[in-house]
Prior knowledge:
It is built from 17 helices and 13 strands. Helix 7 crosses helix 17 (about 460-475), helix 11 crosses helix 12 (about 335-340) and helix 14 crosses helix 16.
Amino acid sequence: MVYDRTPEEFFWEVKRLFEAPLNPANLLLFSGKLQEQFLEKLQVSNICMLPSYNHTLPTGHERGTYLALDVGGSTFRVAIVELGGSGEKSMEIKTLQCHKIGNLERALEGHAFFDWMAVRIKETLEGYDIELAHGSEPLRMGLSWSFPIEQTSIRSGTLLQMGKGFCATHGVQGSDLGDLIMQACTKIDLHVQMDATVNDSSATLLSRAYQDDTTRMALILGTGTNAAIHLPVSALAQTKFGQRPQSWHDEANHVLVNTEYSMFGKNILPTTRWDDYLNITHMHPDFQPFEHLISGRYLGEIVRLILLEAVQNAGLFGGQLPESLKQPYNLDTGILAIFESDDTPDLSKSLTTIQKAHRFITIPSYADLLFVRNVSHLVSRRAAAYLATGIHALCSLRTRSEGLSPATVGHTSIACNGSVIEKYPGFREATQTVLDQLVEMDGGLKREQHGGVSLDIAYESAICGAAVAVCCVDQHGRPERR
């Protein structure tokens, strides 16, 4: 069969399209336009730039033992976390149990799901120290909840539809989440007390802030993406805060904001024909344009779409693609990571991995494998550059809101969590390199000059952040850290 061009010629077009927007001057321009979008949504939006009830960061000197809960889409984790105040073991997980949330658990309706949670809490506590479960003083509890809620206080919020196949809201949707958990715990005589509820991005920020007082932002980048940022209350329109007690407004100078920044970037960040096809065929086109360009769910799909065209028009893989790779979202981003980290001279690790996942009629050649590796690199490095642009925009937003300049803002740590930012080969380093360039071009100090922005991993952030959120409750009414 005669093709329009060779794989090499096709690759050079891909390279040109993906690298063309990544000049630092362009990225700085994109950052400015993103800031304009952020500013607009700080004034009017009920789906992004959402202020939490948490307006206090930890000092790092808090001490105590807390029960921390982390409810995610596939696991429920229960831990005892000890905060020591300082030193190497300032934050220590004393025990942690991870319980799978399978189809049976997802099918539990209403109170039955929370009863299941309570039994798992009891098992963890009694397995570690039975006195903690039934002591004279209630054990204080923090919850990291990875599902939508309408927050009504630092302690809790109104339960909303969970999605992802969960039936837990049946019959109790609109109820107070903290009360549902407490009722289940009281049934089985657990002496605990729900004191704080946070989402995953706020938990990540709090966990890192306990150990590093320059932390003002958190980034989640795995299958999806989100960010939380610490902003002055004055940066948001009064209407964004809803019906809050006056006492909250009297105390709060700053607030943790759930940015939902995955929704930004439309008509700002340049896209390719493959990105555009992904968007128009998506169940919710244009809803999360930033996420489509940088998150783990979509990096593999962008590469798959490029490979599909390369097979059809340039004879990649001998012009034949396995049926499985013709199916949307069937090229896992983890496979791209293996290609990029493969240090074998013949890319044998990559070959084994892709053959195991997809049945090729003809064994891919070294040239085929190299094509996949190089395209993966282009897609992931563009994602890193766009991520750095979004981070720079958010940090600049905070600098501006605080009445500071890039030269006077000092160092900022960003707490990072998620499979892509933590584990994808070279991704965090590539993001950091571009971010350093943007900060310096914008007049900021270098990191070695005690300025700049650093991307720092926050390990076990959901669990530790839930515990730190509890200790922050005690800080309310005290002077805030800026």
